[in-house]
Amino acid sequence: MSFGRAMPPEPPSPDGSTSLTSRGGSVGGASPANRRMLRAFSFLRGWTFVIVFVGCCFLAGCLGPRARPGISPRPRRGEALPSARFLPPLKTAEVLSPFGWRHGHLHTGIDLRETQGGGDIVYASRAGRVVEVGTRRGYGRTVLLQHEDGYCTRYAHLRALTVRRGDRVKALQGIGIVGDTGDATTAHLHFEILTPRRRPIDPAPNLFKRQISGGDRQDAGRRVSSREH
Q1: Domain check: are 52 and 106 in the same one?
Q2: Residue 168, SS3?
């Protein structure tokens, strides 16, 4: 009993192979539905690559080294200028390292040395009040002075401290002895100037006639004294 007319066999292809057909289309080849599925898969695969690439770039930006934020070596707009000049904290000093970026980190002050091995007296750059004295991580023995205009000066890596918290000191009064405490490979004074917002600025323009910056390495190592004012 026949339920339909039998389909005649297809002639063999030129290469001798045969392909089966069905009412929905070719079985040996890709049906229209399969072709649409393949196109969709190719489209999604392309977008997947784009998404993965963008995600990797995003993670690299988040987890990789951060871009250096802009720093201003001088007071920014809106910050008051110092009401008095800063004096060199050592009588005669060799500049070991200037203010600026160093090995991927911001060197927030200037490194000074008078005598190799330390032992020299550190003088207050300006009159002020001792607001911090003691040991600070990385800085070693440290003195922080606050001045009448809100500016602060920090003196770090000291061997000995000769002031106490709350003391009022005059300009060029001795406050400590140069040493190598904290993260210091040699005895020297790390000196910082902080704005009233506690933001570090380059001490060199405030101490010396010629500015010493991170990009001016030829000045690092020269000797300076308070007579340059």
Answers
A1: no
A2: strand
